[in-house]
Design brief:
single chain; about 300 residues; 14 helices; 8 strands; about 45% helix; about 10% strand
Length: about 300
């Protein structure tokens, strides 16, 4: 049994943070109110509809700069060559929190993708399926300034910088559309969960071997200086669909097990091979377990 609590990071004074609910992003009432005001505009939002900007505070811009600097340094050391090349094209500024629209306009010119508004974690059918139409759900709020280098839930830096790197690159954009097209063809929670797990262990937390050395390509790794600093100490396993489906995973916390591919060509083979003909019978064709028999998936508690 994985001790998820001990996979969360330390406080600034070296004490253990413990459960995600103790993170100030969940425990600070003033921060929660600010985040709630920002996310309220996502209620009833239709995928692809326009939406307004956020008036970010000087403190939020400062948090962005702190995180961007740390994450970029981690990427310089630990991201794969293709990601670093994609980053050079990504329209994401370093000095201030960008508005979704300004980044979307540039991404659309590069790959046809745009951000669409999310208030937090989005249901699989909507989140995954929107990628088929070139929309990626993204939040607008900034992580808590007291712990800028760790957030137990996605924030604007994860969505816009981490995924923005992918969405600026035609190769990665194709893979997002491949995921989306598969999700658009199915409706059952069972089938959508299978796609979500494959997406999680590839485009979110994927690792590849570059001259035998592990390098990050997944957006969740690329947007976390903490994960970038420690992912090589995780249990790195060669990509295995059956293992990935059985493996429990935790949305809030560092990941104890990650899967590697030999190259991005290998990644494309994995995703297209599994998803191009994906339908409600894919589970049975691959002799994969039903949803109740898969590893649990835990989300942040205080949402």
């Amino acid at each position: 049994m994985v001790d998820w609590e001990n996979l969360t990071p330390l406080n600034a004074d070296g004490s253990r943070l413990g459960h995600a609910s103790r993170h100030p992003g969940f425990a600070d009432p003033a921060y929660v109110r600010r985040r709630s005001r920002i996310t309220a505009t996502a209620a009833g939002h239709r995928v692809g509809d326009p939406y307004g900007p956020v008036a970010y505070t000087p403190a939020e811009h400062a948090t962005w700069r702190t995180v961007h600097t740390a994450v970029r340094a981690g990427q310089d050391e630990w991201a794969c060559r293709e990601v670093l090349a994609a980053r050079a094209s990504a329209p994401v500024p370093a000095d201030a929190v960008p508005q979704h629209a300004e980044v979307s306009d540039a991404l659309q010119a590069l790959t046809g993708f745009r951000f669409t508004l999310a208030g937090g974690i989005v249901a699989n059918k909507r989140f995954l399926g929107a990628m088929a139409e070139g929309f990626f759900h993204a939040v607008q709020y900034v992580r808590h300034p007291a712990m800028p280098l760790y957030t137990p839930e996605p924030d604007v830096l994860h969505d816009v910088f981490g995924h923005g790197i992918h969405l600026a690159d035609p190769f990665f954009a194709d893979l997002y559309r491949t995921v989306g097209a598969a999700a658009a063809r199915v409706d059952s929670a069972d089938a959508l969960d299978l796609i979500s797990r494959v997406y999680w262990f590839t485009l979110e937390y994927g690792v590849l071997l570059e001259a035998g050395n592990p390098k990050a390509y997944g957006a969740a790794l690329l947007s976390s200086s903490g994960e970038l600093a420690r992912f090589t100490r995780a249990d790195l396993r060669p990509w295995n669909l059956t293992e990935a489906v059985h493996l429990p995973y935790q949305v809030a916390g560092y990941q104890p097990v990650l899967f590697t591919v030999e190259s991005l060509t290998h990644l494309a083979d994995v995703l297209h091979g599994f998803l191009d003909d994906f339908d409600e019978n894919t589970r049975d064709r691959h002799r994969l377990p039903a949803l109740p028999d898969r590893g649990f998936m835990a989300r942040p508690q205080n949402r």
